[in-house]
Amino acid sequence: MLSKNQLGFLYMFISVCAFSGMDLIVKWSENYPVSEVLFFRGSCGLIPLLFLIPKDRYIDFYKTEKKALHLKRCLAGLIAIVAIFIALRKLPLATVVSITFAAPIFTTILSIFLLQEKVGLYRWLAVIVGFIGIVIISEPGFNSMNINYIYPIIFCLGLSYVAIAIKQLSKSEPVWLISFYFSVSIMIMSLFLISLEDWIMPKMSDFILLSLLGILGGLANLWLTQSYKYSDVSLVTPLKYLSLVFAIIFGYLIWDEIPTYKTLAGSLLVVTSSLIIFRREIANKKQVTLTRHE
Q: Does 293 reside within a domain?
């Protein structure tokens, strides 16, 4: 039998693998409209959730007293997921993944205004270091006026509000209900966008991969939550940075992408910054920000 820490470690590892797999499929699917890929993410993302609804909630599983907060969480999540899907198609895989690690930096800033949290000296220093890292990674985009570098930053902004909303929702709402509303909102938005674009009928192999994208997205978030439930945060959080290793390896093997020295240096600063923020949240006994929920 695995201990709780070992179980949490395992959940984090498979969560990282699932998110990385989803990123690869999104980048691969560039020949399909974003709206179509979003449809598969939303619809197939519901499949894992169906097995988590308690038997006594089958009839009224959708009921909630926090409709407004769910709506805000979904809107922020939709902005984030559209931005990250576009970024993965337009930029090197390692570059996108590196910038997404900056989400806790933006969450720290937003928490001051939305949760009235006090941010100490160490966390402010971490925020500054993180922003320097983002500037270093994005510097080629500034020089060439490449607007695509803004999409991972938009993702971080959207995700930072999602993290705060989930902190508030998770006090009374089950994880599966939070994920259910988000998946449904993705479906609704995708159906609207599909009406404005031409649907490309995927061949069977592509259909399987696009469906897998949705299932992986749904499972990854659930596994991430389970990881923090079973294990010490300080033990499992560093493991999520394996996604950068996966991004470098698969970006090179599949798309011949080689990270620049600036990408690697900036990534180091962003990772250091987010680790400092996590450590300070643990030291202050605050609920740690979940870094991916899309």
A: no
Residue 133: inside a domain, yes or no?
Answer: yes
**Domain with 17 in it:** 4-283
Per-residue pLDDT, 153? 93
The C-alpha angle with vertex 140 and arms to 138 and 145, in degrees rounded to 5, equals 95
294 three-state secondary structure: coil
pLDDT at residue 18, as a whole number: 95
Compute the CA torsion angle 126, 171, 68, 56 (nearest 10 deg). Answer: 140
SS3 59: coil
Number of neighbours of residue 110 by Cβ within 10 angstroms? 16
User: Count of domains in the chain?
Assistant: 1
Structure tokens at 152: 């991972």
Return the ∠ at Cα 165 (arms to 273 and 228), rounded to 5°. Answer: 60
The DSSP element (H or E) to which 232 belongs, if any, is none
Confidence of residue 116 (pLDDT cuts 50, 70, 90): confident
Q: Answer whether 5's CB lies under 8 Å from 231's CB.
A: yes
Q: Which helix (H) or strand (E) holds 234?
A: helix 233-236
Instruction: Give the whole-angstrom CA distance, residue 175 versus residue 166.
Output: 9
- Using a 10 angstrom Cβ sphere, with 0-12 exposed, 13-18 middle and 19 or more buried, the burial of residue 98 is buried
Sign of CA dihedral 57, 62, 68, 72: positive
Return the pLDDT at 225. 81
Q: Any idea which residue has 């100490």 for tokens?
A: 120
Note the pTM of the prediction, 2 decimals.
0.90
214-256 pLDDT, tens digit per residue, is 999 999 988 888 887 787 766 777 788 899 999 999 999 999 9
The size of the chain, in residues, is 294
CB 167 within 8 A of CB 15: no
Amino acid identity at 233: V
Q: Considering the domain boundaries, does residue 276 fall inside one?
A: yes
Q: Is residue 291 part of a domain?
A: no
> Do residues 106 and 157 touch, judged by C-beta distance below 8 A?
yes
